[in-house]
User: Which sequence fits this backbone?
């Protein structure tokens, strides 16, 4: 079993296979399941992601009323304007937002690696669909590659906002998505690792400060920004740009930062945006009205 | 390493909004239900740390109740679990604990019915994964990833051998085993992880072994 990114990359070189294949082979070893079963399970997850993207693009609203409808706004803007940041980026962003809006509305999603960060991976995957025309198998492989990087982060740092802040959630998710995008675009395993490192470096220190403790503000927009960054990092890595700090050391730095982060900034809704005047007013309004209803 | 499957990372499929506070909580509830062996008539759920501070917004309460009702993380009935519990005749109370726990996402569940009660502590460790860290006062670490049996027994010689002998006679392999006790010569507990699910008749046979007080099981 690979313990870190450098071992993962070494396995791809020794066996001359892509990252997704290392992950599939390891899952077969660990679970004693057949390749077909593992592929089928991942395809079910892919189906859930696809449905969540579609549902969000039809327009949803959360119970609190804090989030919902932005994916539709972005899609409408794209159809009657020429976006400043280009079509692919906004396609990715709208689908990431769509997924997180469905999540906030207590819809069905697939955690990647968590629910609060569930937008980045499917956003990048389905946002790139028209650009790269992947086969269904390539789309499933995208998820295995993303999973391989997520597993390294989970085992060496954290993927929980309560333990490591948002850097551990949207940071990990955006990194995973960028690494998987590189493989789907035909890049090398090392380029995937570079994309992961470049993405995560820019996410270091990101706190988890949900308004009213809800997975809505700023989570939905953090997924929007995380997914856009994933695409940019993937392009940098494909261009041959490398990270001066190796990927595993970036993950180590993330762990250390998470350890030192105040608990008020780790999903407790006691600091950051949650503690702003507006954040507190929203919390009072939501829980005030929730209590009245009961 | 805690995360061994790709589906710990890409998954679970779940009802939103939070993998640690909703899906992980549902799994804690479901493990509690499995360990208790039946649906409890009442449950008192103490919440600590981030669970205590944000449970309403994350649906941690409905997820824990859903788990106690044996719902999976993706079961849409989680959304109205309070109503489901009422219909199922299960009385649930939440207690917000100010004190800190070892893990930010911790729940202590006391549950029972006419036949007995049970107390355990569960933690949600991220990405929808959960562990049981305490059961009836015994410290342990139970992930629910592989089938496991928990045997409450008297701390006497031969108790462990009698259990492993039964398992061996049914050709059941033990993957991991742990024995804990509170005090020498008093109550003790074995936690045995096996490669396959243990059928009901073997559990009953284990219950009849010398010095065995109670046998419970968990299988994912």
Assistant:
């Amino acid at each position: 079993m690979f313990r870190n990114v450098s071992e993962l990359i070494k396995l791809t070189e020794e066996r001359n296979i892509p990252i997704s294949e290392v992950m599939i082979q390891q899952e077969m070893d660990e679970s004693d399941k057949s390749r077909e079963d593992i592929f089928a399970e991942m395809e079910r997850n892919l189906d859930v992601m696809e449905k969540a993207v579609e549902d969000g693009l039809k327009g949803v609203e959360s119970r609190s009323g804090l989030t919902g409808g932005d994916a539709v706004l972005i899609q409408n803007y794209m159809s009657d304007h020429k976006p400043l940041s280009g079509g692919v980026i906004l396609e990715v962003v709208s689908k990431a937002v769509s997924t997180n809006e469905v999540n906030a509305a207590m819809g069905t999603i697939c955690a990647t690696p968590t629910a609060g960060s569930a937008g980045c991976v499917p956003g990048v995957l389905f946002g790139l669909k028209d650009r790269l025309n992947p086969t269904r198998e390539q789309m499933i492989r995208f998820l295995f590659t993303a999973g391989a990087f997520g597993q390294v982060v989970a085992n060496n740092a954290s993927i929980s906002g309560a333990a490591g802040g948002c850097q551990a959630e949207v940071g990990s998710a955006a990194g995973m998505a960028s690494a998987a995008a590189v493989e789907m675009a035909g890049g090398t395993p090392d380029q995937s690792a570079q994309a992961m490192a470049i993405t995560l470096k820019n996410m270091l220190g990101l706190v988890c400060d949900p308004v009213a403790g809800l997975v809505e503000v700023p989570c939905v927009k953090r997924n929007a920004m995380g997914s856009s960054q994933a695409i940019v990092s993937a392009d940098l890595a494909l261009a041959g740009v490398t990270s001066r700090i190796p990927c595993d050391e970036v993950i180590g730095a993330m762990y250390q930062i998470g350890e030192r982060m105040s608990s008020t900034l780790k999903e407790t809704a006691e600091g950051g945006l949650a503690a702003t005047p507006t954040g507190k007013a929203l919390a009072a309004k939501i829980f005030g009205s929730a209590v009245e209803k009961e | 390493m805690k995360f061994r499957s790709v589906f710990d990372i890409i998954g679970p499929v779940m009802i939103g909004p939070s993998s640690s506070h909703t899906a992980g909580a549902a799994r804690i509830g479901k493990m509690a239900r499995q360990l208790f062996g039946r649906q409890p008539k009442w449950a008192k759920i103490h919440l600590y740390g981030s669970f205590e501070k944000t449970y309403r917004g994350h649906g941690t309460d409905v997820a824990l109740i859903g788990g106690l009702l044996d719902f999976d993380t993706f079961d849409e009935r989680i959304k109205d679990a309070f109503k489901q519990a009422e219909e199922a005749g299960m009385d649930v109370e939440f207690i917000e604990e100010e004190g800190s726990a070892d893990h930010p996402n911790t729940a202590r569940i006391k549950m029972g019915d006419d036949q007995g009660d049970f107390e355990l502590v569960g933690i949600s460790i991220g990405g929808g994964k959960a562990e049981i860290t305490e059961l009836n006062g015994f410290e342990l670490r139970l992930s629910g990833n592989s089938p496991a049996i928990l045997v409450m027994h008297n701390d006497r010689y031969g108790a462990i051998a009698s259990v492993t002998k039964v398992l061996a006679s049914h050709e059941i392999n033990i993957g991991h085993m742990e024995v804990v006790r509170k005090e020498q010569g008093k109550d003790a507990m074995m936690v045995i992880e096996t490669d396959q699910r243990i059928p009901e008749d073997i559990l009953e046979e284990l219950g009849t072994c010398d010095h065995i007080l109670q046998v419970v099981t968990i299988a994912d």
About this structure: The CA atoms of residues 78 and 87 of chain A lie 7 Å apart. The mean pLDDT of chain A is 95.
